[in-house]
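JOB MANIFEST
job_type = single_chain_structure
chain_count = 1
residues = 220
[input]
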Amino acid sequence: MNEIGPDTTVAAIATELPGAAELFRRHGISFCCGGDVPLSMAAEQAGLVPADLIADLEALEAASGRDAPQETLALIGHLLTRYHAIHREELDWLIPLAQKVERVHGGHPSAPVGLSQTLTRLRDELESHMVKEEQVLFPMMRRGGSPVIAHPIAEMRQEHEDEVRHLQAIEHITHSLALPEGACRSWTALYTGLRKFTDDLVVHMHLENEILFPRFQSMS
């Protein structure tokens, strides 16, 4: 992502920088509702020194991508096995679990009403997105690129923005994944799974936007 500064919005950082969302949650900083506030303002409202929060975020940025292969073909393989396949597996059980929690606890003031619908929309859009990468973009990259590759890359970047909006909706519906006192095992398992899934999705998009895509965008 672009350089992190005091005027960078909380929402942009949380949905583009791996680990930032969890850091914000620990400090009680919301990035769904009102997430367009500057980082400096959000830090001050949370009782933090802006420079210290920026330093923590810069440390996350320095560490991002270290666990992924650097060679292009290996990175593509990593994206397919570590993210595409795992997203599909996790959404297969997260959606019915969300439906169960909404059904059983719908009257609770902290119930994640609408979560299963949001996850279903995300699953459908993400599946279409991943299929396009698997059948069109990644094969093109494996062949070394193409003069027309800029178009599918631009389309994938735009679809990442759509996924970001779903992430913000999940954060809003779940009250920043905050479990109410005495939450049952199903509710706890749901939020634990959501935390991993949403964090994984941010890493997935970061690896593509910041590492993989730029390697091919100069072709025209």
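[summary]
The CA atoms of residues 71 and 94 lie 32 Å apart.
Residues 10-63 form one domain.
exit_status = 0
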